[in-house]
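Please study the protein below:
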Amino acid sequence: MPRLSWNVVTPGLAALLLGATWGRDPGSAVLALVAVVLIGAVLSAVHHAEVVAHRVGEPLGSLVLAVAVTVIEVALIVTLMITATKDTSALARDTVFAAVMISLNGIVGLVLLVSALKHHLAVFNPEGTGSALATVVTLATVCLVLPSFTTSANGAVYTGPQLAFAAVASLVLYGLFVFTQTIRHRDFFLPVDRAGANLKPGQPVDADDDGHADPPDNRTTTWSAALLVVSLVAVVGLAKIVSPAIEDGVSAVGFPQAVVGVVIALLVLLPESIAAVRAAARERVQVGLNLGFGSAMASIGLTIPVIAVASIWLSGPLTLGLDDVQIVLLVLTALVSILTVVPGRAKPLQGGVHLVLFAAFVFLTIAP
C-alpha cells in the first residue's frame, strides 16, 4: 500500500464525488468543487501514468499516457453526442482537430521552447520524429481533410463505406507506427545526447544530472496502474457532469460551439502537456516529442474508428471535414513541422513559431 499523499487520495476522492453527483443536477458551488477535483484527478493521472511509463521504459512509456488520454477523449465525445441537446454533429471533428493543433503546436512548441531556453538547443532524433509527423499528417488528411472534398454525400461528411475505409486505414497506420516505435525501430524514438547520438543501452537518461529516480518496483507500478484507471474513470465521469456548464458558458459569452471541442481537448491533453514539459526540462526532448506527436496520432487513429462504430447508433450526420480556415492552419502546421523536424535540433525560435500557430488556432476558433 503506497503512502498517503495527494496523488493517492485524489483518485479516491474523485471517485466518491462522482458517485455522489452522478445522475443529479448539482448547484454552482458543487460544480465548482467538481471542477477543482477534476483538475486534481487529471494531475493524479499524470503522476501515475509517469510511474507506469518509467517502469516500462521508453518509447513504450510514451504510449501509456497517449492511450490513456485517448480513452478520456473518446468517452467524452460519445457521451456528449448522446446526451447533448445542441447540435453535436461536428463535435468529434472539432475535438480531434483541436487535439491535433494542441499537440503539434502547443505541446511541441512548449517542449522545444523550454528545452532550448534551458539547454541552448533542443536535440532529438529526426528519423523517429519525422516518421511520427508523416503518420499524423496522413491520418489528418484522410480523416479530416478529404471529407470536405468528396462528392458522394452532401456536406463535409463521409458515406458509410468511406467512413469504414477511413476507420480501418487509421487503425492500420496507428498499428504500424506502434510496431515501428516499440519493436522494429525502437532506437529511433529513444532520447539522444547533446551531440544527437542515441544513448547507449543501459546509459542513464539523465543528461542534466538531476538524480532522476530508478524505475519503480512491481508493487509500486501495480498500485499506480490501478490508481491511474480510477483517475481516468473519475475524469471521464466528472467531465461529463461539468460539460453542460461548459456548453452553457460557451453559449452565454457568444463563442462558437467549436470552442467546446477545444475545451475538451485542452482538458484531456493536460496530462501529456505536463509530462512533455517535464521531460523537456530534463533535456529528454525526444520523450516530449513522442508524447506530442503520439497524442495527435492516437487522437485521430483511435478516436475516429471508435466514433465510426458509435455512429451506427448515433442519430444525425457525422461531420468530419474541416472548413477552409482549419485546412489552412493544418497545412501551415504540417509545413512548419517539417522544417522543425528535418534538422534534428531546434532553437527557441522554432518553439515560438509553433506556439504562435497554436495561439492563432485558438483565436480563430473563438473569433472565426
Notes: The CA atoms of residues 135 and 173 lie 7 Å apart. The chain has one domain: 6-366. Residues 6-366 form a domain with the A middle domain of Talin 1 fold (CATH 1.20.1420.30). The first strand starts at residue 122 and ends at 123.
